């Protein structure tokens, strides 16, 4: 009888909000089993090497694991691409040949640089020390990876880390929406949107973006808590998320700090202009944003992190493969103009992203409240700031602007709630035979 009751319980589905949240997480995790290998990008090698170095591996041991993993991913992608090639799908698999060539190329590069003395830092010398410095100052994601790759190895460890951080991002969306009094089914909609839109796809890639998205959502949840009356807890959560972002990607801590400070200042000025008090929560969040900006700038200078000028030279010299530009900033401005014109052309050609941004903005401002909406818009705007700092149309997918997708993820469920609350317009129903005959007469 107990077994029968358990089966009936499963057939009836999960009970309560937590059950539905966990069900979405489970469905998402199972779906990711379809692609365990081949998600890696060129940056993955650097983050994995950093994590293995933190675990105590020497350079040669680290190189063996990292190169095997990178080449296995390259071979897996080659095999998949050939399987759907209309001219070559019946040919022998290229996986072994691609993997062998990949290992030879990467080992040759690493060996030559190690012999030349480029042995410092936590990463492997796949490129110049100047370029590798960019990843040396991002310890947050490698630290997050250490337990996963230690227990499960490189391939499954990176996969499990991706599932964990992406699932956590979806749960944070759910918590954020529930804090704004959104019904459970619409909060679950927001969680599902996070998984199926590009933010979920990008978060699953073994790069820092997944953790960056989750921490940005944690900061927004802190904003929601503060505006909901739990000022102390909310401000502490937002401040903690900004501090963690510095370790993951300090540019995002800077951009988000600027956004929160600007949003808080605009809300405060608007309320003062209307004779209202700005509120302690708004002022507190603005102060946290200002502290994040000042702290990021001072700490980055004190630790001798790569500067804005280094970032521009990296962009314009193909990762320092070419000589430094003598006048990088005017060149960057010209590139920005070309980039955004092409970006806008592509958006007008395929306007789904623009339409979802508009719907998300309407939702967060009209249903979420002006103050909350301003903070969400500020967080989403960091995606455009990141893209503007790297106007490269060829970057993997749209990962640089991925934070902008948080606007529809949060805003569309709010918009759906507002639309559901509108009184439906009365439409004439079917008339009876007596009414029809009277109308004819």
Describe this structure in words.
There is one protein chain. With 441 residues, the protein is mainly α. Helices cover 75% and strands 0% of the residues. α16 packs across α18. The N and C termini lie far apart (67 Å). Residues 1-13 and 432-441 have low confidence and may be disordered.
Strand content: under 5%
Low-confidence stretches: 1-13, 432-441
Q: What coarse outline follows from CA principal-axis ratios?
A: globular
User: How many E-type strands?
Assistant: 0
Given the helix and strand composition, which structural class is it?
Answer: mainly alpha
Strand and helix order: HHHHHHHHHHHHHHHHHHH
How many strands, which pairing sense, and closed or not: the largest β-sheet? none
- Backbone CA Rg: 25 Å
Helical stretch tally:
19
Mean pLDDT score: 89
Our measurement of the CA-to-CA distance between the termini, rounded to an integer number of angstroms, reads 67 Å
Helix content: over 70%
Task: Note the main attributes of this structure.
about 450 residues, mainly alpha, 19 helices, about 0% strand, disordered N terminus, disordered C terminus
How are the elements arranged and paired?
Elements: H1 2-12, H2 16-32, H3 42-54, H4 59-83, H5 95-115, H6 129-136, H7 140-179, H8 184-196, H9 198-204, H10 209-227, H11 231-248, H12 250-273, H13 280-302, H14 308-316, H15 328-349, H16 352-366, H17 370-389, H18 406-421, H19 433-440
Helix pairs in contact: 2-7, 2-8, 3-4, 3-7, 4-5, 7-8, 7-10, 8-9, 8-18, 9-10, 10-11, 10-17, 11-12, 11-13, 12-13, 12-17, 14-15, 16-17, 16-18
